[in-house]
């Protein structure tokens, strides 16, 4: 049968021999001896309409496209697990031979047919086949790789939830490997473009690699969103383990070869994929959703001097912490006149979440505090910081956490007024606006009328005398900034004493408000506040070089002054202060079981030492008595006093 070339490209499906009518030859089609080979699928011409072909042609004859498609669907529906390779591989070979990955409309339609026709439990096998095919094309053009990844995205989107098989991490590992290779290709093209004269062609290849990278990120997100929560948590940990972070092992990403630009690109894309994976993630316990192996590297990235990376980290935290989808109601940093009208959804804080905040609360507060004063913060950073404080209040704040959050807000206000780090005026006003917006939200959430009255009074005075300290003004385009902030006008600022009086009733330990919040600077803070991963590695090398002993220092003459400096009391005070800080930090962050075990071990050690002392004392006494008895004449008694 021959059809006009303008309408169809004629093809056929065969097993060993071309069946005259697929519908009447179901018996031999899926037999174990016959190997399924799909040489071609009938494709509509580019002028034809998209969609499933109709059953009749123009002359009333059976449409060959419809015949081939129905035959192919029936073959796939009858395919057993052992025959899936024979069903999928010929399609992949056909798409390769006829260059149908770019454009990939026909490839997408073929795999839609495959995914909707096979049995649901075989979906993961098709996904694995496409992944293996992607590995064979790792050196081909970016558009071909992007076409294969987009087909993979379609297969993942169609796959039934929970039926992606046991090789979930292998799938993500393959995708992340191709993401890394794409970044390598992009950086290689960029360096060659800088050294050659063909700028336009280099930029074209670079943009094509971006297409591959975006397709991989979308696939990772859809794949992660298609998993049950317990598998999604594993995927989150797996992806976070691939993000280049100083101080954590990263075996698959050689950041020294990537350099600053490549490292940042990898970090941005992996965090973007984490945002997609965590979207819609609901965990009953924060401890399960944010374990230390996930939380620590995430917070390390939040200390990088890159506003975009910090924004991505905050969005990931929002996805995990906001379990009642309140973010949309809190969108935009502003003074909310009536929080009750937002109809915030919340539940009573569970014991597990209370324990989580006792263990990790100080870590959360510290990173919010440090993130606020970054000089490259923009409007979006302050919006996300406000949302972070708000969702913490909704999801994890009991009476103790409320006091801690107020102390944090007051510490931010005091930091701006002191201005010891000479922050830009926009950042100082932005922090003041953030504190005002949050305390306005918090006072209404805890429904404390005196507290609400104090906050409203300060906001009203700012509206009249210092509008640049409110979010509606400072984040407006071309907002005039003051030359300085008036520290003496106390009415423009939130007063700790007034807030303590408002919370003096039962339930809140208002006395803790008199204790200023001071973030505990840790090694993590000092080592991760770097503009790039490469700068951090370079700094580490410099420190190692400087730590080597110098011959001139070894030959230094010991004088009275050097001895005096060695025993200077200032150094001893600093050591004592550092010891106290470490002890306090340990008791704040360590779990109760660990502290109890530590105290028990100390008690056991003390008991052992006392037993040794008593044993030595008794032994010495006995030896002394024996010696004395030998020296005395016989019959003279030995008297003990």
Automatic annotation (TrEMBL):
PANTHER family on file: PROTEIN EFR3 HOMOLOG A, PROTEIN EFR3 HOMOLOG CMP44E
Name of the protein this chain belongs to: EFR3 homolog A (S. cerevisiae)
Biological process according to GO: protein localization to plasma membrane
InterPro entries with a match to the protein in the record: ARM-type_fold, EFR3_Homologs
GO CC field: plasma membrane
